[in-house]
Amino acid sequence: MELPLDHFRLIGVSPSATSEEILRAFQLRLDKTPDEGFTYEVLTQRSELLRLTADLLTDPESRREYENLLLNGNSGLDFYSNKEVAGLILLWESGSPKEAFKITRKALHPPQTPALGSSREADLTLLAALTARDSAIQEQQLRSYSNAADFLHEGIQLLQRMGKLVNIRKELEEDLVALLPYRILDLLSRDLNDHESHKKGLNMLENLIIKRGGLEGNNKSEYKNYLNQQEFEAFFQQIKPFLTVQEQIDLFLELQKRGSLEAGFLAFLSLTAIGFSRRKPEKLFEARRILKKLNLPGLDSMPLIGCLDLLLADVDQASARFSSSSDENLRDWLNNYPGNKLEATCIFCKNWLENDVLVGYRDIDSKKVDLDSWFEDREIQEFIEKLEKKSNKTAIRSNLQNQQIQKESSTKTTEDFDNTSSNIDERRLPWPGGIKEDYEEIQNKDKVFNQQLFKKKPIEFYNFLIEKIAELKFSFGEFLKDKKIINQSPYLIYIYAFLILFAFGIGIGFLRSNIKKSIQDEDFAEKPLIAIDNNKKVTEKNIIQEIKKSPPNKSKSFTEKSTSIIPNELKELNKASPSLEDIRNLINEWLMSKSNYLAGNSELNISKIVSKGLIARTKEERQKDIKKGIYKEINPQIRKIDLESQTSSRIVVLVELNYLERIVKNSGEFVNETSLTPLKVKYILGFSKKSWKLIDFVSGL
């Protein structure tokens, strides 16, 4: 057998070594015999080969002849078959474990397979294990981790086939497992054109994370001896820049399905990155949906969602998100920012994109973020316009559906009242002590209510009726909270139910009998807005077309029609524990004052009930409208109000509004209309200077 080895390498000296240096190296090699478990026979053969080499190189004539052979290209050494194992050991010791492993592996396979149970088989098997391990170490030093893993894998397979050296095989298996992160790094860091290696690295990475129990490492039994959570996180930070943004999205979404919350958050960042860098705003919607569903402890998601709202041109919603942040330092920074609040929000969003979002991707250049170019992009503008149109269409459709439902509900409620009122036997209602006076007071209120009710025109009466019924329902609910009264007389519930139904029935009957006559009277008294041919059927389409022909008149805006319910002088809300009706009135005053101001009909003198910050935001909105040459006609109506939380210094209520907004140019030209029914808004009140003030709101919940 010829081995890629010369006498100088065999004994471990340079070709220029003197005879004294050769003899010294020879003695050191004899004294340093491998103690890994080779047989005495092969170690004896090794010593004999070393002695023959020393004799050749120390004899001047023999050395001269050998050097001439080397000059003529003869570099290998021939070994007899009975000494080839010793020669392979010397080749391994000379610093060539890879060559020694390949030859040893070949010697263990047919037709060179040694006799079963022979010393040759034992020595070759041990040498294969040792050379596989050292070859892997050598490849690791060269950062060829995948090649190192291949050597370990082949060595393990050889030992399994031979059925020997179980302990060494386990050591090789542990080395192979410990090498896994480096193998992944090696495969993924290669050129993207090497598709097979990149795909293999991705699969190995995903399997590693899954076996660890997600990015959090919930499976403590896997890899606990060599890759703890801190080491894994450091490794993962090295891996990330070698993955494309789409590869990260696919990986993190798959891990999120398996229950990894950290992966869900990283998927949110990756979707935001691809949405912003590739100008794909639809990806921002997907990112926001994922973030809203996450429940990561300690994560303040409000400013992050606010950044997405800002990128989608929803400035008001973005501002509301930032105001709802639980980070006091962030809120203080925003409130104390010397410039415009929108400018502060943009700065936060820009820094977030640069430092947290657009970093760590192979195919994204994390250059300086330019928000102006984002909003100036034609595709982004078209997407936002389509989104607004879709939102308006949805709102109008929802409004029409709600009107139809209310119409059907009113008819059914009247029929139910007719059936129910006849079944109530007033003689069975008890009057315990202390309750009759309350009932008489309610009857007196009902008389006043009925007098006011019959003075109104049918349409006005219907709106008035709905409002009063809501007040009765609220009073009824507050009354039921008094457990003492209810315990004394559970039948009192029926009394209030009867009174509400009774009032509602009177109103509906009056409406049915007078609505037709009232409309006829108005037809004779006033000139109709739309001339209609008697031979043509009136449709919604006809009316819409006529409205478009005649632009709205600013002197008769939605806001102006509602100003009559606002008092001339606003009063502070000084009650320590205000009722829900007090809060409703305060919010209504805010809504009407804001509507008047945005329509250009009045000043915004509401500092007694609204915080300075909210007033400043409204004035800023009006200034923007003035620059655009427009004004807004807004008609907000409170449908429902519920108390969410209340303390001595903070009150939060949830409100449903009927919201109609029309944008009109100063010339009177109609621009756009938005209808939201219902619009859900969270209002936040704070107690300051001995009075309650509206300090913020969050719309579109």
Describe the structure.
It is built from 29 helices and six strands. It has 701 residues and is of the alpha+beta class. It folds into five domains: 1-94, Helix Hairpins (Orthogonal Bundle), CATH 1.10.287.110; 96-178, Serine Threonine Protein Phosphatase 5, Tetratricopeptide repeat, CATH 1.25.40; 269-376, no CATH class; 395-506, no CATH class; 554-699, Nuclear Transport Factor 2, Chain: A (Roll), CATH 3.10.450.50. It is elongated. The relative contact order is 0.04.
Characteristic key phrases:
two-stranded antiparallel sheet; elongated; Helix Hairpins; 5 domains; Serine Threonine Protein Phosphatase 5, Tetratricopeptide repeat; 701 residues; 4-stranded antiparallel sheet; 29 helices; alpha+beta
Ranges where pLDDT stays below 50 over 5 or more residues in a row are 409-443, 445-488, 515-568
Query: How many extended strands?
Result: 6
DSSP helix fraction? 55-70%
The major β-sheet equals:
4 strands, antiparallel
**Strand fraction:** 5-15%
Number of DSSP helices?
Answer: 29
The rounded distance between the terminal residues' Cα atoms is 82 Å
CATH topology of the largest domain: the name is Nuclear Transport Factor 2, Chain: A
Computed over alpha carbons, the radius of gyration is: 43 Å
